[in-house]
Design brief:
With 282 residues, the chain is an alpha/beta fold. Helices cover 32% and strands 15% of the residues. It contains 9 helices and 10 strands.
Length: 282
């Protein structure tokens, strides 16, 4: 990256298929989404990466951990993908805050044949204080108080078992989260969050600023938004129903929360394929 931070790319699947570029939500890792993207590797050329200070990547300074930096990183990542694997038609597949990268990029989606966005954190322009802003403040405070170190991975899974966040997830997700979002602490005290809680909280606080800047009408590629069920209590930030927006192909999955790819991976893949197949991208 421009500031010397490193982001690791991994390639899986069918090199002859349409390329999918995948990234994840705040505080998580793309390997946590294996129940979803493992269903794509037979047919697609799958390239996955973690946001800076997440997953496989070393922690970078908090001052550089911002939404604009994610956007800048995204362009360099696409350059690296072309350099390492060759240029070809590709589809961006992003969840939550990683959706900001293509949505706010100056290239306006022109480097993709299509975008598929899972429950991006959006809000409509309006008053400076609304449900979204209040939820962002509240969620940022919660993230800032997360337990930073666990004696064992089992201690982490035991704690997560009491929390409602992933109660609808497919079997094994909590254990997978322990192995993909924790790393051994350098001092031997146990296992620490790969994405420090301060980094996670800062991005949530920034979401309220950038969520209103997204302009789907400016995008230069077909875009599909697959949302959480807007009738359910939200598990991260409020889901925006985009059914009245003519420039977006929008669906939501009934009974799915913000973590829909971990709850209904088969349904998420089916909805994505239904969008890509008519365009010859699946």
């Amino acid at each position: 990256m421009d500031d010397g931070a490193a982001v690791t790319l991994r390639r899986h699947g069918n090199p002859g298929g349409t390329r999918l570029v995948l990234c994840h939500g705040n505080g998580l890792s793309i390997d946590l989404y294996y129940p979803f993207w493992s269903r794509l590797t037979d047919d697609f050329d799958v390239v996955v990466y973690d946001l800076r200070s997440h997953g496989w990547n070393a922690v970078s300074p908090l001052q550089n951990h911002t939404v604009p930096t994610f956007v800048e990183d995204h362009e360099r990542i696409l350059d690296a993908i072309d350099r390492h694997y060759g240029s070809k038609p590709q589809v961006g597949v992003f969840h939550s805050v990683s959706s900001f990268a293509p949505l706010l990029s100056s290239t306006q989606g022109s480097r993709y044949s299509a975008l598929v966005l899972f429950d991006p954190p959006l809000r409509k322009p309006g008053a400076t204080t609304n449900d979204f802003d209040e939820a962002a403040e509240r969620t940022a405070k919660i993230a800032g108080r997360r337990t930073p170190v666990f004696k064992t991975r089992q201690a982490f899974t035991d704690l997560m078992g009491f929390m409602p966040t992933f109660k609808h997830a497919v079997p094994g997700v909590v254990e997978l989260m322990a192995s993909t979002t924790l790393r051994e602490a350098p001092d031997g005290s146990g296992f620490e969050l790969r994405c420090p809680r301060e980094h996670e909280a800062q991005i949530i606080a920034h979401a309220r600023i950038f969520a209103v800047l997204v302009d789907f009408e400016a995008l230069l590629c077909p875009t599909k938004v697959i949302g959480a069920d807007p009738t359910l209590p939200y598990s991260y930030l409020p889901t925006l129903d985009l059914s009245d927006m003519m420039t977006v192909d929008y669906d939501f999955l009934p009974d799915a929360t913000h973590f829909l790819q971990l709850e209904q991976p088969a349904e998420c893949v089916a909805a994505m394929r239904d969008f890509l197949e008519p365009a010859g991208l699946a």
